[in-house]
Specification:
Elements lengths: L22 H18 L3 E5 L5 E4 L1 H7 L3 H4 L4 H4 L3 H16 L3 E7 L10 E9 L5 E8 L6 H16 L8 H12 L6 E12 L12 E10 L14 E4 L4 H8 L3 E4 L3 H9 L4 H6 L1 E11 L2 E11 L7 H38 L10 E8 L8 E9 L5 E11 L1 H19 L4 H19 L7 H5 L4 E8 L4 E7 L5 E3 L5 E3 L18 E4 L5 E5 L11 H13 L5 H12 L8 E8 L7 E6 L5 H16 L5 H18 L4 E8 L2 E8 L19 H8 L2 E6 L4 E8 L4
Helix pairs in contact: 6-11, 7-11, 11-12, 12-13, 15-16, 17-18, 18-19
Amino acid sequence: MERLPTSPGERPARGQAPPGDSSEAIRTTQATLEEWAFHQSPCLLAIFGTDLCLLRVNEAMERALARTQDELRGLRLADIVPGPSGEETAGRMRTVLETGEPRRAEAALRTADAGPQAGRPVTLTPLKDGDGRVCGVCLTAQDGLEDPAAAERQNAARLKDAAARLGTTLDLGRTVQELGDVTVPLLADLTAVDLMDFPRSAEDTSPAAATEPVVLRRAALRSVDTRDPAPASAVGGTTAYAAASPPVRCLVTGRPERYTAAEPTFGRWLEHDEAAAYLRALGAHSLLAVPLLTGGTTLGVVLFGRRRDREPFGPEDVLIAEELAARAAVSIHNARRHTRARTTTMALQRSLLPQTLPDQTALDIASRYLPAGSQAGVGGDWFDVIPLSGARVALVVGDVVGHGIRASATMGRVRTAVRTLADVDLPADELLTHLDDLVLHLSVEEGSATDPAAETAGGIGTTCLYAVYDPVSRRCTLARAGHPPPAVVAPDGAVRFLDVPAGPPLGLGGLPFEAVETELPEGSILALYTDGLLEARDHDIDVALDKMFAELARPATTLDTVCDRVLTALLSHRPDDDVALLVARTRALHADRVAAWDLPFDASVVADARHYADSQLTAWGLEDAAFVTELMVSELVTNALRYGRPPVQLRMIHQGSTLICEVFDSSSTTPHMRRARTFDEGGRGLLLVAQLAQRWGTRHDRIGKTVWAEQSLTTP
C-alpha cells in the first residue's frame, strides 16, 4: 500500500485512486480526499500556527502570491503582505486566537495579479481541537475566478456608488483627485484629468480648431503603476497635444472617443508622441477619452487607460465614463467659480485692510488677519489704527455679518466711515451712534424686502469696538457695539476683561452706546479681536478664553510673538470664520515731554504765551522751531481770546519728531478759515496756522474745544 502524506509538506499525487475497502483504507481515503480538497480548492487557503507563523498554503494561494509554500513557511502575515493592511489583519488574527471567534478583514490580501492599491477580503477562522482549544488560524480568500459578466456588473455597481462621492467639496484639486480615486482600478488602470486654463464655449470648439495643438494642464493623475510619472505628465504641468491626437479629437467632437492599440491612428500617437509617454509606460492598449462638458462649456478631457491584461473598453464602459465625467465637470466648474470668487473677495479685502500700520509713538502694535477657510467664503472682519490729535491713537476692530464680496464691500464702507468720524475727534460713544445711523441708512439704500441679502449688505448686525488711548494721561476710553470685550494684561502679568457695556450691534437702533474710561499703566497690553478667534469647532468658548488668557500672560519680547502664540493655541486648523487680532502695548509721555499753562483771559497774555513757548523749546533743545511755533501759538491764543470763553489753556507736547501746540477754551464754537479781503484786519490767523502746520484741527470735549496744530521737527 502506498504511504500517504503525513506532514504538511507532502502531497498525494493528483488522480491517484484510493486504496481498498477496509476501514483503514476508508480512513486513508478520507485523509487523501481532505488533502486533495485543501490543495486543489479554488479558494485561497493558508494556515497559521498559534505563533501566527505560516504553516502551509494551498496551490491557489501559491499562484496568487507567486511564491511557493517553502518560501512562505515560517513568515508572518505582515512579512507576506507589508503595510497597514497586513498589520491590521495580523491583529485580527490574534483576536481570533484569543476569542475563538471568526473575523473578516477587507482588502487584507494583496496578490501578485492585483494592483498595488487592490486587496482581497479574507475570512479568519479559528482551528480547534477536540477539546475546543484554538490551535491555529485558517485564512481564506476567493481566487477571483467568478463569472466575468458578474464581475463587470459588480464593478459597474461599485462605480455608480462611488460616483456619489464626486464633488463633495469646492476644492478643485480634491475634486479632480476624487475622479481618479473612484475610477482606478474599478474602471481603468490609469486616469488622467487635463484641464484648459481658459474653458471654451461650444462655438469655440469647432472642427477648425483641430488644426492647431491644444495645451492642457494636468490636474490629476492616478495609476496602478506607483512609479513617478514623466516630468511632462506631472500634476500641475502642461502638455501640448497634437491636433490629430485622441484628446484633441475628443475636445473637438465633444463626444467620447474609444481606441485600441490595433487602430493605426492611436498606435502611431501612442508610439511616437511624447505627450503619450505616460500611457506607453503603463503598457496601455486601450484608451477612452471623455470630454468634461457642463452648460455648453468645455473644461478639458479625462483619459482612461487599460493595460493588456484587461479587456478593452466596451460600450458599457463608455456610458459609465460619461456619467462620471459629467458629474466631475459640474463639480470642477463650481470649484473654479468658487475659487475665482474667493480670490476676488480676498483681493478686495486685502486692499481695504491697512497695508501698513501708521507711525505713532503712543503704542507698540502688532496685528494678524486670517481669512476663513470654510466654503462660506471670506467674511468682513477688519481692524484699524488711527492717529488722533494730542498724540492719542484710536484702535478699531469690527465684524460685518455675512461672507463673500458683499460683506467685504460693506466692511470697506463701514471702515471708511469710522476713519471719517474719528478724524473729527468724536468721543467713542458718539462715534458709534453716528455709525449706527449710517448703517441704518445704508441698509435702506442697499436692498428691499425682495432681496434676502439686503440686511447684511447694508451692514445691519455689524459689531465694532472703538478705543482711544491717550499717552499723556495714560487713560483709555472704550465703547463697543455688540463686540466681544477687550482683554488687558497688566505689567505684572494679570489678565482681565475690561468691563465695557456691550451695546447693540450696529443698525438695530433704539439703545444708546456707553463709553467707559480706564487708566492703563505704562507697559499694559491691550488685546482686541473678533469672535472667530474664540469660536473654534474643537473646543468651547470657556476653554478658548482660558487658552487666550494663558498666552497673553506669558512674557514675550515682541508683540508679534504674542499674536503668534495666541493663534497657535486657539486655532488647530483654518478658521471657519475670519479672525482679526490687534495687540497693543501702551507707552507714556512723561511730564518732561508735556508742558501746560493756564492763561488769563486778557489780550496782553499773547506775549506771555509766546514767551512760555520759547522758553519750553529752549528746554527741549528745539530752538530752531521757535519762530514757527511762536507764530502758531500767537494766532491760536489770539483766536481763543477773541472768539472763545475763559478759561484758556496752552499745552505743548514733544513727541518724537513731532511738536504739538494746543489751545483750549470753554466755547463750543468751531473756528473756520475764511478768505480775508485786502483791507480786512482779521481772518488770516487760521490760514497762517494751516500753512505752517503739518496738520491742524479742532477737538470738542464735553465742555469746550481744543484747537491744535502739529508740526514736524527737523531734529528729534
